[in-house]
Amino acid sequence: MLEFDFFLDVGEIQRRLISDSGERKLTEHEYPRRPTTRWLFALLVAAAFGAHEAVAEETQLRVAFGSEVRSFDAATLLERADARSITVQNDVAYHREMTFRAVPLLALLDGLPLDRADTLEARATDGFVTHLPMALILRAKNGGSVPWVAIDESGSPWPPLPGKSDSAGPFYVVWIDPERSNVSQEQWPYALVALTEVEAPVRRWPQIAVDPGLASEAPARRGQEVYIVQCLPCHRMRGGGEGDMGPDLALPRSPTEYMTTTGLIAQIRDPKSLRNWPDQKMPGFSESALATADLDALIAYLRHMAHRRDTQAVTAH
Ligand code: HEC
Questions:
Q1: pLDDT for res 1
Q2: How far does residue 114's CA lie from ligand 1's centre (Å)?
C-alpha cells in the first residue's frame, strides 16, 4: 500500500516537472536528440545531394539571458574578427591534441549582465545538459582557464568522436589551460546547441539537495557538489535535472541498493570493466578526473539520497 502511494507520488512529481517547464518542451522539439531518424534522414538527404553544408548551416547556437535571446550560425561566427585557430592539448572529446576555429565564449555574452548571473546551462543535442558556474567562466578575466566556443566548419568538418559516428559539432565549449580553474571533463559540452542563463541547480531543483539537517562536514554534502558537476549532466536526481542520457540515480531505485560498492566504483571509474556493449555512453572517471576522496563523497551522497527518497519524495512538489 505504502509502496503504491510512493510510486503514484513520484509520477505526480515528474508530471509536474514536465508541465511546469514549457521551455524544456520547446527546446526538445527544436533540437531533436541524436541519433534520431530525423537526423539520419537529414544526413542521408544531405549526402545524396552532396550538400553537407546544408545541415551545418541550419544549426544555430542559441544564447538566452533573461529576456534577451541571441542566435549565432556557424558561418557568421567563423567570419567574426575575434575568431581564432586554437590548439587544445588534451581534448576531452577527442582524447588527443585538436585544433579548432573558435570564438571566446565571453565575447558571445558581451553586454549582458554577467555579474548578476549565477549559472550558464549548456545543452547538447544528445540529452547532455551541464551547468557552468558563471564564476568559473568569469575567472577567465583574472588568469583562470579561458572558455572558447569551437565551431565545426562545413568546409573541413571535424572527424567522428572516438568510437562514435557523430563529431563534436556543431558547437563545442573547450578550455585553454583547464587546470588553472580545475575545469572538469563534464564542463566541455560538445554537440552544443544552447547556452541559457539559469539559477543554480539546487535552487532549480531543491530535491537534489541533501537533508538540511545533515552535519556541515558530512561527506554527502561534498558529494552533492561532485554530483552536480560530474553526474547531473546525464543523470537526474529524484526527478531534478535536465539530463536525459542516463537513468535517474535515485528513482525508482538507487544504484546503491542494487549494486555492490565494488560494482558502483567500477561503473564510475571504468564502465567497460563492468559491462561492455557498442552503444555504451557513460565515460569513465579516472583518478585525475575524480579524486578518491570525491568518489567516496559521491557514494555517500548517493546512499544518503537513496535513504531520503522515502521521507522526501512524498512531500516534494
Ligand atoms: C555523459 C553522460 C554521463 C555522465 C557524465 C555520467 N553518466 Fe552514468 N551513465 C550514463 C549512461 C548513458 C548510462 C547507461 C549505460 C551507458 O550507456 O553507459 C549510465 C549508467 C550509470 C550507472 C548504472 C545504472 C544502472 O542501473 O545500470 C550508474 C551507477 C551511473 N551511471 C553513475 C554515474 C555517476 C555516479 C556519475 C557521475 C560521476 C555518472 N554516472 C556520470 C551516462 C553518464
A1: 35
A2: 32
> Distance between terminal CA atoms of the chain?
21
Residue 246 CB contacts under 8 Å (≥ 6 apart), including other chains: 234, 235, 281, 282
Q: Could you tell me the distance, in angstroms and rounded to a whole number, from the CA of residue 288 to the centre of ligand 1?
A: 18
Domains of the chain by residue range: 59-199, 202-312
Report domain 59-199's class: alpha beta
32 in ligand 1 pocket by Cβ < 6 Å? Answer: no
Q: Are strands 84-88 and 68-73 parallel, antiparallel or unpaired?
A: unpaired
Q: How far is the CA of 251 from the centre of ligand 1 (A)?
A: 14
User: What Å distances lie between residue 6 and 71, 175, 251, CA to CA?
Assistant: 43, 43, 11
The model's pLDDT over 241-281, given as tens digits with 9 standing for 90+, comes to 999 999 999 999 999 999 999 999 999 999 999 999 999 99
- Protein residue with least CA distance to atom 25, ligand 1: 255
Classified as helix, coil or strand, 146 is strand
CA of 76 to the centre of ligand 1 (A): 36
pTM: 0.82
Q: Which of 274, 282, 292, 294 to mutate to test the pocket of ligand 1 (most atoms within 8 A of CB)?
A: 282
Say how many Å lie between the CA of residue 225 and the centre of ligand 1.
17
Q: What does the alpha-carbon distance between residue 148 and residue 105 come to, in Å, rounded to a whole number?
A: 5
Strand partners, 70: 63
CB 19 within 8 A of CB 260: no
For domain 202-312, give the fold.
Cytochrome Bc1 Complex; Chain D, domain 2 (1.10.760)
Contact 115, 127 (CB under 8 A): no
